[in-house]
Amino acid sequence: MATTERDYYELLGVARSADEGEIKKAFRRLARELHPDVSDAPDAEERFREVVEAYEVLSRSETRELYDRYGHAGLRSGGFQPGTFDFGSLSDLFAAFFGDDLIGGRAGRTRGADLIAEVEIELAEAASGVTREVPFRVAVPCTRCGGKGAEPGTEITTCLTCRGAGRLQQVSRSVFGEFVRTQTCPTCGGSGRKIESPCTVCSGAGRVIEERLLDVEIPAGIHDGQQLRLSGEGHAGAFGSRTGDAYVRVRVLGDPRFVREGDDIFTTVDLTMTQAALGATVTVPTLMGTEELEFDPGTQPGKVVVMRGRGMPSLKGSRRGDQRVLVNVVVPRHLSDEQRRLLAEFDEHADERTYKADESFFDKLKSAFR
Ligand SMILES: [Zn+2]
Ligand SMILES: [Zn+2]
C-alpha cells in the first residue's frame, strides 16, 4: 500500500504545534465526515485512509518526532507501515481508537455477530510466526433460500403488525407529558416481513451453521492473550446484512527453558565447578535452535551473557529482543574418596590470589593515585 506523500498536519487540518487533544479532536471530526459508512463521496475512502494514516503517525510521540524531523522519508527508514488494517464499521473504529461507542450499539443495522476462537502456539512459533488452521462454527447464509428464509417459489409479504417497519412505537401519556417507546416488533422479530412457508433447510432463519476451517496467519512476536481480527469472517447478518468479524485469541504456551519478558528471553546455563574455573564451551538453547557459548576461565556464578538479537521479534518493528543467559555454577554433591583427596590437595595449593577478582576499573583508578 502506498504511503501518502501529503503533509499529515495539513490532512488533519491542525497546526504543527497542535497538542494531543487537538489532533484527536480533528481526527474524530474528519472520521465522522469521511468514513465509508457515512460518506458517499467517491474519494471518501481514499481521503479516509490518508486521514487515518496521518492520525496513526501524529498520535504517537515516537512516529510524530520522526516525521517532524525527517518527514515521510524518516518514517519509511524507521520501519513505519501505514494502515494495513481494515476499517470495519465507524463504531469499531472509534472503539479501537478512543475506546468509545459512537453510534450507541443500536444503529438500526443488524450486522452479524462477531465470533471468537482461541489457538495455542508454542513460544518458538510465536518467535517465528506460524499459520494455523482454526475451526469456527459460523452462521452462513442458507443456500436453499438465498438467505431470505422463505421456501423457494413462495412469497414473502409485509408483516401486518408493524407494517414492515420492524419496530413498534408505543405512546404513553402521563402527568409529565408524552413518552414514546420503541420496541422490536414481536411478530416478525424486526425483519418487517412475513414468511408464508419457511425454508425447509433453515426453518426461516435465512442462516445455517457451518463448520469452517480458516488459515490464520499469526505474526512473529505475538504476545500471549493478543487477538487477531479477521474482518468479515464472523456470522452472517440477518437477511443479507453485513457479516460480523472473527477474532482469534492467541495463547502462547510457556516453555520451561525460557522466560519471556517483553521481547527479551531469559535462560540459565549450568557450568560445573571445573568448567567455570577452567573455561568451557557449552551448548545453550535459543528460540531458533541451539548455539555454542564460550565461557572464560574463572567465570563466576551470576554472570549474565547477552546474546544480541536472539530474543523475540518485535511486533512493531524490525528490531529483535535479546537473550540473556544467567550463569549458574554447580558444586559437586557426591565425592568419592579419591575426588575428596584431590580437592583437599588443590586447596592446599590455593591461596588468596587463586580467588582474587581481577582489578576493577575503580581499583585501577585508585592505584593510579597512590
Ligand atoms: Zn413486524
Ligand atoms: Zn433457508
What does this structure look like?
The structure is a single chain. The chain is an alpha+beta fold and 370 residues long. The protein is built from ten helices and 15 strands. The strands form six sheets. Strands 10-11-15-14 form a four-stranded mixed beta sheet. Strands 1-9-8 form a three-stranded mixed beta sheet. A two-stranded antiparallel ribbon has the order 2-7. The longest helix is centred in the first third of the chain and has 17 residues. The termini are far apart. The structure holds zinc ion (ZN) (2 copies). One zinc ion (ZN) binds next to loops.
How do you describe this structure in short?
Helices cover 27% and strands 28% of the residues. By secondary structure, the chain is an alpha+beta fold.
Percent of residues in helices: 25-40%
How many whole angstroms does the radius of gyration measure? 33 Å
Low-confidence stretches: 83-87, 98-109
Number of strands: 15
Largest pleated sheet: 4 strands, mixed
Mean pLDDT: 83
Globally, the shape reads elongated
The structure class reads alpha+beta
- Counted by DSSP, the helix tally is 10
